[in-house]
Amino acid sequence: MKFHFFKRKECTVPTAATWCAASILCVVVLAACALTVHSFLAPVNTVPSDILVVEGWMPEYALQRVAADFKTKGYRLMIVTGGPVENGSFLSGYNTLAEVGFRTLVKLGVDSTRVVAAPSQFVRKDRTYEEAVALKQWLERSGTSGCSLNLYSLGCHARRSHFLYTYVLGKAYALGIVACADQSYDSRRWWRYSNGVRAIADESLAYAYAVAFSLFASDLRN
Question: How far apart are CA 74 and CA 51, in angstroms?
């Protein structure tokens, strides 16, 4: 009796035509993702509201857009969020980005009696989450809980900000989102710019982390 350690078997393998079709499909899927991922990460979806919330760390050209919308779209109140200033606080005299954004918007012509700063505390991570917590605390202290708001953020960061602010505020609030254009790259051809590629990659991962973080936190509460 002979012992065999190996034996021959027939198996089915893809043909050249199959590999070609699969390659074409991959190219089509990647192209579709490239054309739609930016609009997904940078949404514009407002709700009827007279309260505007803005992240104070945004560049001045984005704050100019915010100031213009505040004056022309019927808002009565603007709330500026933001955490501690990491560089330049000794020179500027402002300790938080909420204060920096507040002063910038006033310089841009926003009535100082209609804009407030809601600064958040220093954290090593989850800074956007802490901004949302500070906003909710301000709303509750001021007696404006359970209202609708429109949040202004920058470019690809908007999807994550909207998700985390919605998560923190809860169902009692209706929250719209406006993604101001990031002028460091052309959003229609973001893959041609290093800033665009970094923004898409960073914010895609950060958004996935935010979703996972919220699910994990929900499991802990349950």
Answer: 9
Q: How far is CA 36 from CA 103, 160, 170, in A?
A: 36, 16, 28
Q: What is the pLDDT of residues 131-160, one digit of tens each?
A: 999 999 999 998 887 789 999 999 999 999
| pLDDT (0 to 100) of residue 183 | 95
Report the distance separating Cα 147 and Cα 57, nearest Å.
24
Give me the residue spans of the domains in the chain: 43-182
Cα–Cα distance, 111 to 77 (Å, whole number): 10
Mean pLDDT comparison of 13-17, 63-67, 124-128, highest-scoring range: 63-67
CA distance 191 to 196: 6
Q: Which two tokens stand for residue 65?
A: 């857009």
Q: Residue 118 pairs with which residues in a beta bridge?
A: 81
Please name which of 182, 161, 208, 164 lies closest in space to residue 38, comparing C-alpha atoms: 182
Q: What is the pLDDT of residues 66-83, one digit of tens each?
A: 999 999 999 999 999 999
Helix (H, G, I), strand (E, B) or coil at 206: helix
CA distance 68 to 60: 12
The phi-psi region of residue 105 (left if phi > 0; otherwise alpha if psi is between -120 and 50; otherwise beta) is alpha
- The CATH architecture assigned to 43-182 reads 3-Layer(aba) Sandwich (3.40)
Least Cα distance to 41 among 152, 150, 209, 156 occurs for 156
Q: Shortest CA distance to 110 belongs to which of 79, 137, 139?
A: 79
